[in-house]
Specification:
Blueprint lengths: L3 E7 L11 H4 L4 H14 L2 E7 L3 H13 L4 E5 L8 H10 L3 E5 L21 E4 L4 H15 L2
Parallel strand pairs: 1-2, 1-3, 3-4, 4-5
The structure holds 1,3,4-trihydroxy-5-OXO-cyclohexanecarboxylic acid.
Length: about 150
């Protein structure tokens, strides 16, 4: 089986997972989530790279870098930038790399401003509401899509 390169991007405030609003985001830390993803990636022949930033431009730069690195797919939790960032949308469209949008919480059950995503209509799919499991679902989903299984 060939190896796929997947970039996982975590947006602002996700470095605080574990202590940040656990009623919405659960008890897992970002380190826990990255470890789960890395373990799953090992079973799926995926070369995974996890990156978190609180800065929109850093995330844009990392998406540009993904083109140079020949990344096959992106799993992204854009966090608050989901609802605001035309820059992230444009970067993902420019990179033309298939991506899945992920949320720990069910954003549609929350405030109205969280119902709008700047990225979702360009994504392969969106996973929201399953806590840390949203990420493993997204990694399984993008793996299946990219391998056409
Ligand atoms: C989030 C939902 C966003 O609305 C919020 O701004 C986040 C996290 C989630 O994973 O549920 O920071 O993307």
């Amino acid at each position: 089986m060939n190896t796929l390169k997947i970039l996982v991007l975590h947006g602002p405030n996700l470095n605080l997972l574990g202590t940040r609003e656990p009623a919405h985001y659960g008890a897992s830390t970002l380190h826990d989530i990255n470890q789960q993803l890395t373990a799953l990636a090992g079973t799926l022949h995926i070369d995974i790279d996890n990156y978190q930033s609180n800065h929109e431009g850093d995330l844009v730069d990392r998406i540009h870098q993904a083109v140079t690195d020949a990344v096959d797919g992106i799993v992204i939790n854009p966090a608050a930038y989901t609802h605001t960032s035309i820059a992230l949308r444009d970067a993902l469209l420019a990179a033309n790399i298939p991506f899945v949008e992920v949320h720990l919480s069910n954003v549609h059950k929350r405030e109205a401003f969280r119902h709008k995503s700047m990225l979702a209509d360009a994504a392969i799919g969106v996973v929201a509401g399953f806590g840390a499991t949203s990420y493993t679902m997204a990694l399984n989903g993008i793996n299946q899509q990219l391998r056409n299984t």
